[in-house]
Amino acid sequence: MKKKRIVIGIIILLVIGGTWYMKREKDLAELHDIQTDLANYLYNNYRLYTVDKRKDEQLNSEYNKGKGTLTTEEFLKKSDELKEYSDIEKIEFTGYEISPMNTLEIKYKINDKIEKETSLDTISAETNKLLYRVGEHDGEGPFYLEKKENTTKLSTPENLIVYYEGGIK
Length: 169
Hints:
The chain is α+β, with helices and mostly antiparallel strands. It has one domain (2-46, 85-162). The protein contains three helices and eight strands, in the order H-E-H-H-E-E-E-E-E-E-E. The chain is elongated. The model has no long low-confidence stretch (mean pLDDT 82). The chain crosses the membrane at residues 6-22. Keywords: Membrane, Transmembrane, Transmembrane helix.
């Protein structure tokens, strides 16, 4: 009788543990899919740029807030010409958090140059996938993330993505 109870107890523990393990594996697979989708979104819609600081300072002194030798139009045109663009070559996901507003926040680095955090709280009615809000121009320098004029629909090569395999904090 005692042996039978022990066997039943072990079976119950295995069922509960198996259920918990399957849920965790399902959650991790879902987080992996979210990382892949976000990586594809970034890879197809954004690029990085930087500006030579000395050239930028020289340009700003010539413009002098509209009081210098350059017109605003010339200043803006020359500012765009100073940008040195590069493609996204690596996206490394570094963690997740649930915000106080119950929003999933994904943290990641792009090309080991920009650290970003994107909040995911809206699901598209058309695709039933999360909508990403990254911004048009973003960064604190010297590297910035900018939305591409011409987007693509490519899959991000797997070797460019470093997945975060930990759970949600």
